[in-house]
Description:
Blueprint: H1 48-57, H2 60-64, H3 88-105, H4 110-119, H5 128-138, H6 147-158, H7 179-184, H8 211-217, H9 228-251, H10 263-277, H11 285-294, H12 307-336, H13 352-370, H14 373-396, H15 403-411, H16 418-432, H17 435-446
Helix pairs in contact: 1-4, 3-4, 3-9, 4-9, 5-14, 9-12, 9-13, 10-13, 11-13, 14-16, 14-17, 15-16
Amino acid sequence: MHASPGTPAHGPDGTPAVEGGAPPAPRYTPADVERWVPEPDKRPGRTAFQRDRARVLHSAALRRLAGKTQMVAPGSASPAWDATPRTRLTHSLECAQVGRELGAALGCDPDLVETACLAHDLGHPPFGHNGEAVLDEIAAPAGGFEGNAQSLRLLTRLEPKRFSEEPDGQAYVGVNLTRAALDAATKYPWRRGEHPTDPDSGKFGVYEEDLPVFHWLRKGAPEGRRCFEAQVMDWSDDVAYSVHDLEDGIRAGHLDPRMLLSGPERSEVFAVAAERYAPGAVDDEPAAALDRLLAQEWWPHGYDGTARDQARLKDASSQLIGRFCLAAEAATRSAYGSGPLTRYAAELIVPEAARLECAVLKAVADRYVMQRPDLERLRREQRVVVRELAEALLARAPEGLDPQYADLYAEAAGSAEPAVARLRVVVDQISTLTDAAARSLHRTLTMPGRSG
């Protein structure tokens, strides 16, 4: 594939040319704004990255995140007060706002970073990481399942937007983003088992079947290294979910902030942090990180659901986001100077103190929300739904598949390994479902007559 033809109205990075003069100094190269399938602009004046952002924002995959679990399942009732918990969609929108501003402050194209943030969770299946783990087991003969690899698959293959007319090429090309946008949305730029520092890690960003487009988007990139915009997206994701999961836990009544002053409670939080979020921390570093936060005048030391406490909690969230982003911005600028930082010209530097504070917030939310007994019962039931749904679809497909996936299922008959290709199609279908849609289809296929 090759680049879409440029137009005189745009500079090499897709930014509008200065009328009557030369285009502005490019922060991105012509290769960065190439698309897998060349296509002309529909409306002059938009940058390539503005088009990328619009394509993700208008995608069905993004809309479906409204019905997918973030931390608390959508529609869950709080025993204390209405928590209006975040979904994958609201998390993605908040991550995009954080990333756009941090990226712009560091000289990235803000539309490019926002596109990556909006896209980063598109591949996550129903029931969050719980559903992801089950699908990974089910898809083992086809190379497994990973939400980030599925995001790339959606962007480059499954989300209906563009098709290739080349007879020897991949017919379905997803939303056909630019090379830089796909690279920025790739949090783990390696195959399974090729993590640069942890070969046993289950995190990876591409399936074997999608390697052609992966190699295309990674053209010229250092092996295993994430581009600068992807690093901004990743930190923005950490910041958004660590802060907002804490906020949701407090608002739902699952966490009384005063617990964090209790020695036994703190010990449990630090144990979770050491196991899952800050395994390299030594001695009392997590305790010192938490104490730094508790010492801030804006920290919410109590919460009763009144408007006053809601405002104080919301201010604390804003303060935390600013604290974490400004720490990364200052450290990165100190290392690389004041110029635009893009692609592979820099590394995002996050001070260890900020990383530890973020990790402790994740551990607090994990301890008081994710480890609730009622949620563990719910997760067990969710795993049964996904497993039985997969068994039913594999036994009865194409019945139960949406037309798009029924078509792909039929095409799988001509592949080198039809059974493996069909398994991947079924997993693709399940991964697109919202939590409610997964339950509904499960009832339809496993309990005839109860499809309501």
